[in-house]
Amino acid sequence: MAQAEYVQESLAGLDPAVGGVDPALPLYATTFVVVDLETTGGAPDGGGITEIGAVKVRGGEQLGVLATLVNPGQPIPPFITVLTGITQAMLLPAPPIEQVLPSFLEFLADAVLVAHNAPYDVGFLKAACAKHGYRWPNPRVLDTAALARRVLTRDEVPNRKLGTLAAYFRTATQPTHRALDDAKATVDVLHGLIGRLGGHRVDTVGDAIEFARAVTPTQRRKRHLADGLPKVPGVYIFRAADDRPLYVGTSGDVATRVRSYFTAGEKRARISEMLAAAERVEAVECAHSLEAEVRELRLIAAHAPPYNRRSKYPERMVWLKLTDGPYPRLSIVREISPTDTAYLGPFTSRRAAELAAAGFHDAVPLRQCTHRLSLRTVTPACALAELGRCPAPCEHKITPEEYDERAAAPFRTATASDPQPVVDALLARIEALSAGQRYEEAAVVRSRLAAVLRATVRMQRLAALTGIVELAAARPAARGGWELALVRHGRLAGAGVSPPGVHPRPTLTTIRATAETVPGGHGPVPSATAEESERILSWLERPETRLVEMSSGWASPAGGAGRFRDLLAKAESGASHQLSTERS
Questions:
Q1: What is the 8-class DSSP label of residue 522?
Q2: How far, CA to CA in Å, does 225 sit from each of 211, 222, 229, 259, 471?
Q3: Handedness of CA 339, 343, 348, 351 (dihedral sign)
Q4: What is the distance between the alpha carbons of residues 178 and 156, in angstroms, rounded to a whole number?
Q5: How crowded is residue 268: how many other Cβ atoms within 10 Å of its Cβ?
Q6: In what residue span(s) does the GIY-YIG domain sit (predicted)?
């Protein structure tokens, strides 16, 4: 028989994907199913359960009991019989686990599962469900052993064993290593622990689950910062005592996202440092996720919060442009001017621009020297000319017209429309190097090819969007109605949501009337950062988004860089594989 696939995982916390109970539900109103299992003592493999005991309680009142022996389909080790008193003869007439699971899962529905050393019991139950084809409901889980470690000190109890805790809380039923007795004892232990939680300001089931986990003192002390935040799309800003922004983030549910910073799932050292300095959290409500993402980018760019790593300093972007003059060369610059006609970018770093420039130098005979050449005066040639890597325009061995055709024109064509000549030259160079078994050099050229394609594909996509004076788009909202966005020159100028059941046109008219005025400009990102325009592009390209109105057509060159996306993916994949091989 095939073994069930099972991997021990951490217990369910406050993940939105977890089913069942709302984490904000007060403890007194929460339904708990307290479970205990007896097993044959092996690893969770879909079997091995010999007894299930479960008690359902709410508000201190017992609502139901489920108890049954289970035939594990395998012999019971003698030491288990000695420990529990369960014999092989007792289990022969008992039902197998696949017959017990439906009743147990129904009993567990819409409740929080409680167990002492819960990973053990949950592991067996999940493995049994996986083996016999039942869907594990993924309930929220509260571990009384973990909770006791957080609530009780060593002076109160020497250990957190169920028997020790039962004696401490003077439970009505003492644990006997039988499932139902141990479950009933765990119920009383649970109630005793809940009685101690009030002093820790733990009032909800979500708070109790997180309190049982390894939350730092700083997280526990600052968790009140998440109180009162809206459960809507928006941006949240952690601020210091002097009101400086420390960290800016975005979420479709601000309250839930901010609350997650104070849970055991948050383990980043820099975030822990940020929480220690934070004094309040400010929320900026947004119409929908796109507006929230754009506002986040703008706030990070404006304030450069110390604990944000990405999207800071957009002004540090650089460009690769073709200089003026009879023998132009490639130059890395901070800005492009309206007089510049051949350029590529923006690049996120100088290194990325240099890599793309190296790709063009491998493909076409652009000069690499920085001298200002004259049509009248000859300048001594460099080593590249002697190696045949440069046509030596410095010595006037090539006319300006021929140089432009062979060297400059392919760059202009690649950036504005078709990079085919550059791609063909780089592929031919890679093939030649590979044929000569110079694989490391071929990998370097492949990285340069990826840099050229990445930059040309990106710029042409951006230019296609930012050339549109105004674009209106709509996307179905999760709760009905439409999410609306008004984009001008690649910048989000207005956003809103139309009410469910109402035609979105009046809302769009209002958005247009109050939208930001966005003047055009030069280049592929005239009015916004490249990252903002790319976020807008991602939103517009979703299958469910509808284009409502456009001031002009939206198109990319038919023979443009976009058709090389598959080649770019292969080049990047090869570079990633090479990097992982070198690191290993």
A1: S
A2: 16, 6, 9, 8, 39
A3: negative
A4: 26
A5: 10
A6: 231-309
Q: What are phi and psi of 283, to 5 degrees?
A: -115, 135
User: Is the pLDDT assigned to residue 486 strictly greater than 90?
Assistant: yes
HSE-up (13 A, CA, CB side) for residue 301: 16
Average pLDDT, the chain: 90
Quick check: 53 and 180 in contact, CB under 8 A? yes
Would you state the structure tokens that stand for residue 459, as one six-digit string? 């710029």
Q: Which residue has the tokens 């999760």?
A: 478
The 3-state secondary structure of 255-277 reads: HHHHHHCCCCCCCCHHHHHHHHH
In the residue annotation, 200 being an active-site residue is answered as no
Instruction: Report d(CA 412, CA 166) in Å as an integer.
Output: 80
The length of the chain in residues reads 584
Please say if the pLDDT value at position 311 is more than 90. no
The two three-digit tokens of residue 98, written as one number = 């696949």
For residues 171 and 185, is the Cβ–Cβ distance under 8 A?
Answer: yes
Q: Which two tokens stand for residue 551?
A: 């001031």
Place of tokens 């916004």: 528
Decide the pairing of beta strands 31-39 and 112-115. parallel
State how far the Cα of 355 lies from the Cα of 452, in Å rounded to an integer.
8
Specify the DSSP class assigned to residue 407.
Answer: I
Task: Please check whether residue 515 is in contact with residue 493, taking contact to mean a CB–CB distance below 8 angstroms.
Answer: yes
User: Cα-flanking dihedrals φ and ψ of residue 394, to 5°?
Assistant: -65, -30
Q: Which residues contact 169 (CB under 8 A, 6 or more apart)?
A: 188, 189, 191, 192
Beta-carbon contacts of residue 177 (< 8 Å; ≥ 6 apart): 38, 83, 84, 85
Distance of CA 181 to the CA centre of its chain: 44
12-21, 95-104, 266-275, 389-398: range with highest mean pLDDT: 95-104
Question: What is the spatial distance between Cα 128 and Cα 90, in angstroms, rounded to a whole number?
Answer: 21
Phi/psi for 23 (5° steps) reads: -65, -15
Query: Catalytic: which of 132, 177, 191, 396?
Result: 177
| Strand runs labelled E in 94-135 | 112-115
The sheet with strand 112-115 has its strands ordered as: 61-69, 49-58, 31-39, 112-115, 141-143
Tracing tokens 């299930």 back to the chain, one arrives at: 52
Measured CA to CA, the distance from residue 266 to residue 514 in angstroms comes to 40
Q: How far is CA 467 from the centre of its chain?
A: 31
Q: 489-498: per-residue pLDDT in tens?
A: 999 999 999 9
User: Taking the CA of residue 64 as centre, how many other CA atoms within 13 Å lie in the half-sphere pointing to its CB?
Assistant: 12
Give the mean pLDDT of 102-129.
Answer: 94
Model confidence over 400-422: pLDDT tens digits?
999 999 999 999 999 999 999 99
CB-CB contact of 516 with 474 (8 Å): no
